[in-house]
Specification:
Layout: H1 3-15, E1 41-50, E2 59-67, E3 70-80, E4 93-97, E5 102-105, E6 107-115, E7 118-132, E8 138-141, E9 158-163, E10 166-172, E11 174-175
Length: 176
């Protein structure tokens, strides 16, 4: 099956309220029907690394996890507060997936982190989208439009984070 065909098949599985609970991968027996089989689990993750010249002073991650009939997509971008001349909430952070979906990550919170022995204050931008049994996506934070993000279940899709339209981070999804 080609990579494009797998993405289409995976998209169908996410969209179908009947197919997702019975999905079987890696020798699993599916999650429905009381047959005693194990629930399907798919987990794709991408570490988002700085891009640009000079590289952006930011970090982030994205992940898609499917277990049984529940799916969650989550992405986080952290940017040091020193990079902003005004309120971080005034800026737009987006995550562009190679599958054609764009997610908007609203400002979530200010955090202090210890990096290399130094306390750094970062602005966190986050999106969390959930879906149950192929139903409508529920936007806990941010949005990916009216759809749930679809990714190739064997990995290889990419994500690029932008700050006010400028690429700052990029990464490739891998199976975990």
């Amino acid at each position: 099956m080609t990579s494009r065909a797998m993405v289409i098949a995976f998209s169908f599985l996410l969209a179908s309220p009947l197919a997702l609970p019975n999905l079987s991968l890696a020798g699993g027996k599916g999650g429905g029907g009381g047959g005693g089989g194990s629930q399907t689990r798919i987990r794709l993750e991408a570490d988002l690394n700085p891009v640009g010249s000079p590289p952006a002073n930011a970090e982030g991650s994205a992940k898609l996890e499917i277990k049984g009939g529940k799916a969650q997509f989550e992405a986080t971008v952290e940017i040091p507060v020193d990079n902003f001349i005004d309120d971080p909430a005034n800026h737009n952070v987006a995550l562009n997936l190679s599958t054609g979906i764009t997610c908007m990550l609203p400002f979530d919170e200010i955090e202090q982190e210890l990096e290399h022995g130094v306390i750094v204050t970062v602005a966190e931008f986050k999106v969390v989208i959930q879906q149950t049994n192929g139903g409508l996506p529920f936007n806990k934070k941010g949005t990916c439009g009216a759809t749930f993000p679809t990714l190739n279940p064997i990995g290889g899709d990419t994500a690029t984070a932008t700050l006010d339209g400028t690429d700052i981070l990029t990464g490739t999804f891998q199976v975990h």
